[in-house]
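debug: dumping io for the single-chain case to check the tokenizer round-trip. Nothing else runs in this session.
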Amino acid sequence: MLNLLWASFFIISFVVALFSGRPDVWNVLSGALFSSAKTAFEISLNLTGILCLWLGLLKIAESSGLTAVLSKALMPLFKKIMPDVPSDSPAFGSIVMNMAANFLGLDNAATPMGLKAMEQLQAINPTPERASPAQVLFMVINSSAVTLIPITILMYRAELGSTNPSAVFIPILFATSASTLVGFLSVAVVQRLNIFNRVVLGYLLFFVGIIAGAAWYFLSLPEAERYQTSSALSNALLFGIVTFFIAWGLVKRLNVYETFIAGAKEGFSVAVRIIPYLVAMLVGIAVFRASGAMDYIINGLAYACGALGLNTDFVPAMPTALLKPLSGSGARAMMIETMQTYGADSFAGFVSCIVQGSTETTFYVLAVYFGSVKITKTGAALPCALLADAAGIIAAIYFGYLFY
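debug: decoded output
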């Protein structure tokens, strides 16, 4: 699947460019080819320091037994949805912290923890070149991760002059929850997981309760305080987690400095391993966009909606939706461009922000997570993740109309 998709980026781009009638298209394509390869390396380089930091802290958590304590809380759920993973696997602790970081919008912490979890799952994978069921589920959940506090989006809305930057908070929460739920259910169907037992339903209701409680809390705050409160809370939790890891290690009489260094050394090797995978994926996406193929898709969508008699007010936000699974920076740029063109408080700007927060950058997550453990056969991971993306985007449009 990934093989055909990656090749199609180049073939479709070549055909579109050939018949585009644009004399400069080949220069644009060549520029995109080389600049995106450079960008992929720069991303890996910038990620190195973050990986070293969080893998060092994760090493402290593992060596002090903290991850084992955290994993026990979710062990009943993991046994049901990841039956092929031994109950004593350290991967569960890494998965818990990865999900918690995603939930809090701490992307810099979530990625290193997720890569560590993928490595630990790979250690028990009987077919190293093919993703195991647990790895597929973990990747799909990450590519559609629920984010409680979309700090970056709120910041851009405020900077671009929105009179109500946090207006997108609740719609994003609902849209990203829909994306994650569809992603989880699609994998459950493919892997024939029993999700109707009391354990799984109990955990699902618990998580829904947390989301509903968080939504109620932020809605109860005065409008002017929501952005500042969410930003302060997110950063306080981030630093609190770092401090707690180190303090826990000291309580357990661990040499936290040496343990941190040992874990940080792993960050460099992980960053180096993902470079080829990032280059491959980002180059393919860049030429697809530069050729104009993306514009044809957007224009075709607008025509189809108009022909069906549907309201097309959401169409200007679709570049963000179409780029989101392909490129996080591209989708972010499209969101900003939409707000600049139509206004931060326009309907198109409102929907583009909800879309941006509704799901993750699927192809980036797939390339980084599977590339870090050299998996080339991803199974149902990509179709299920794209289905989750589609659900998140549709939900974003729906809640955009509902809340605007």
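debug: round-trip ok. The mean pLDDT is 82.
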